[in-house]
């Protein structure tokens, strides 16, 4: 059976990408990163719940402590407040420096070890928060690089099935595939009830609203 490594944060985008991989006939190897993010424990719970629902046998939980050491992001530095007013311009302070590049590099090593030929990541370009490592251009570039830097017998395709979708389209696609979005977690700030006001919560709630659907996870503010 063909294998795919899925980078699975526990958020709705990476979760949908993983269900798409399963729907396309791949045996999934799930990879999750604990990198000192504010909602690390809640995201890990989401990852484990989703792996159980997908009946994933092979999974990796990778710790990357250095993101906390370098700081520079509101997600990993408790001295930087997570924005809640939705008026940031440019690359937001929640951007974690080159996070997806590092994630993809580690996932590539796992894919090469596991003889997987696909690597799924739930990046979204058009309706994302403006992160430079979520673009189609970046993914194409790093896909070339990883195949240049691996064995001649290794041929990995990075698949980004959501990259050009809007959040509402992601919600609709998830509903179509019976993805349990109530198991996912998107909030940047809170682990018990989603804050409802950070950029990630705003994007998620807006996606559900435009899809004429109700988000089942608990919120402090809606």
Automatic annotation (TrEMBL):
Molecular function (Gene Ontology), one example: ligase activity, forming carbon-nitrogen bonds
Alphabetically ordered keywords of this record: ATP-binding, Ligase, Metal-binding, Nucleotide-binding, Queuosine biosynthesis, Zinc
Keyword Cell membrane set for record: no
UniProt KW Iron keyword: no
Cofactor: Zn(2+)
GO biological process: tRNA queuosine(34) biosynthetic process
First-tier enzyme category under EC: ligase
Binding site for ATP: 8-18
Pathway: Purine metabolism; 7-cyano-7-deazaguanine biosynthesis
InterPro entries: QueC (IPR018317), Rossmann-like_a/b/a_fold (IPR014729)
Cofactor binding note of this UniProt entry: Binds 1 zinc ion per subunit.
Pfam families: QueC
Binding site for Zn(2+): 187, 195, 198, 201
EC number: 6.3.4.20
Protein family (similarity comment): Belongs to the QueC family.
Function: Catalyzes the ATP-dependent conversion of 7-carboxy-7-deazaguanine (CDG) to 7-cyano-7-deazaguanine (preQ(0)).
HAMAP family: QueC
Official protein name in the record: 7-cyano-7-deazaguanine synthase
